[in-house]
Amino acid sequence: MLKKRELKYPLDALEPYYNKETLDIHYNILYQGYIDNTNKTEEKLQKARETNNFENIKCLEKDLSFFGSGVILHELFFDNMGPAIPTSPNIELMEQINKDFGSYERFKTQFTESSKVVEASGWNLLVWVPEFNKLEILQCEKHQNLTLWGCKPLLVLDMWEHSYFLQYKTKRPDYINAFWNIVNWNEVNKRYSKI
After folding, report:
1. How far is 64 from 34, CA to CA, in rounded Å?
2. Which candidate, 34, 17, 37, places its Cα nearest to that of 26?
3. Which of 63, 73, 104, 147 is deepest in the core (most CB within 10 A)?
4. In what helix (H) or strand (E) does residue 153 lie, and over which residues does it extend?
């Protein structure tokens, strides 16, 4: 059974860039819902295996992909944010960013522009693609569509409307620009060091 991962900071720690009310709803209600639904789906899959009844297997496996990916992406998202204390990519990650995007500013511009055009239910991610041996920026519809197999998420930005609408309304670019103030590059560096 999955359990809710504790936040590494208090609910008000991202103010004013990500307000307490939005984070509270996002973390305690929506993220918890993905955990609950993943657990329910796992229980149904276990029952299907025990009874050898796979009548609903297509639906159950879709649910597992959707809800389970929602859990993982939310945990990555919450962890790669932190209080607005300046952090930056470490030397190794910065070298890779410069190699793959030309400069940090070009990477940041591409990530920002890509985030602006994510479908209303999706994510924007900086990922490491082992097969390409490089960093890429990907949009992910829902929680699982349009991904590259084997990619490792490093920096994750939730672009579902629930992640910003309460505070930023329709001003999506303001949310994206505010996000850069609370990126915890120490966490992103740690992820990159594990690839």
Report:
1. 10
2. 34
3. 73
4. strand 152-158
